[in-house]
Amino acid sequence: MAKIVSVEILQADLKPKVKRTDAVQAFELQETPMVRITDADGATGTGYSYTIGTGGSSVARLLDDHLAPLLLGREADDIERIWRDLFYRVHATTVGALTSIALAAIDTALWDLRSRRTGIPLHRLAGGAKDSIQLYYTEGGWLHLDQAALVEEALHAKERGFGGTKVKVGRPHVAEDMARLSAVREQVGDAWEIMTDANQGFTLDEAVRRVSRFQEVGIAWFEEPIHADDVRAHQRLVASTSVPIAVGESMYSLSQFKDYLQSDACSIVQVDVGRIGGITPWLKVAHMAEAFNVPVCPHFLMELHLPLCCAVPNSRWLEYIPQLDLVTTEDIRIENGRAIPSDKPGLGIEWDWEALDRVIVHRNRHTG
């Protein structure tokens, strides 16, 4: 083991390649807080997390002012201890998005460093449960797209070997959502999956009403139908339908997932490594879901979720929504609609530092 001697805090701002809209918001900008940790032997690990347009500068300040200085002199391999120490150091601001996003950038950097030092790729270091994961497509299902565009994108995704597509729902009337879903189903056939996502846009009664209609087109799941804070409402929704209810991208702690699983308030866990606080808590949520016989289908960050999905046995789908290809030198490997994790040590992400330098808006180095 070697002590941490340098921590660099960065923020890279990445613009989405396509317009992204849903029932409550638009994805304006991927603010990408990054952490580079170097140990006394000269080994470096790089981690990151994200926002969808706001809060990035606050995350960078939290890292710079409160978290990064506490890493200096610590043993880099004490990942669990470091995570807990940092969590309790900023306990007054947890559980919350900004704190979890900041912790995620640090924790993923420490796992990257451990993987590089051991020479073991992350998907094996974290579990080694499988060697590939099925992909579904998201970029062609945004709420502003008309029916013709939805159908075209879905057929293109099917031709490329993806196992399904996600269609955003939340148009003013259920008939509008149904027209869009039915148009896609008619063209892709019954044996191809259609996932739906409401981005917390409905009340309980409207969610019950809509899922009863969505069931007619055989959807794979109904994602984030109601605000994530309301476990009881999700419990009632699950009891009302045979459609799987998916939650998780807007949850920031292990305890929140525990409450959902114990209450039979979800059917699919979409834990997001960038919002749960890093790889350390992500793995705990995934294994807890396994104990409840619930699959994991993580939200966003496909490059980082790829090795994690292959580390655990209960992963089912990986969301294909590319973003890091703007600042990496290698794309993820895809064969027959399945993503295959890198066998190189580290997170499996090869950063293009020249490209990153052009989009970095914050940089600060801590040494000791």
From TrEMBL:
Pfam family, one: MR_MLE_C
CDD domains xrefs: MR_like (cd03316)
Chain ranges of the Mandelate racemase/muconate lactonizing enzyme C-terminal domain: 147-244
Gene3D superfamilies linked: Enolase-like C-terminal domain (3.20.20.120), Enolase-like, N-terminal domain (3.30.390.10)
Magnesium is among the record's keywords: yes
Protein's UniProt keywords contain Metal-binding: yes
Biological-process GO terms, alphabetical: carbohydrate catabolic process
Protein keywords: Magnesium, Metal-binding
One MF annotation (Gene Ontology) recorded for this entry: hydro-lyase activity
Cofactor(s) for this UniProt protein: Mg(2+)
Domain of life where this protein originates: Bacteria
Protein name: Mandelate racemase
Organism of provenance: Inquilinus limosus
